[in-house]
Write a structure and sequence with these properties.
biotin biosynthesis, flat, BsaP_C, binds zinc ion, Biotin synthase auxiliary protein, alpha+beta, about 60 residues, 3 strands, metal-binding, three-stranded antiparallel sheet
């Protein structure tokens, strides 16, 4: 998957600075799929989180 969109704010990665977003994404799950900008279905659990895009599948961390 090519990362086109910011997982935090949903804007294109080439659109401005996403420094704050990167910082936020180190702490919390992404809200948007980086490939298609769909809203991720996020589940937080004790070991971390998982975020699912209906097209691109599941991302996990933790
Ligand atoms: Zn951003
Ligand atoms: Zn996607």
């Amino acid at each position: 998957m090519t990362e086109t969109y910011c997982g935090h704010c949903g804007r294109e990665l080439t659109d401005g600075s996403h420094e704050d977003c990167r910082r936020a994404l180190a702490l919390e799950p992404p809200r948007y799929c980086a490939g298609c900008r769909r809203r991720m279905i996020v589940q937080v659990h004790p070991m971390g989180w998982s975020a699912r895009c209906s097209v691109h599948g599941v991302l996990t961390a933790g």
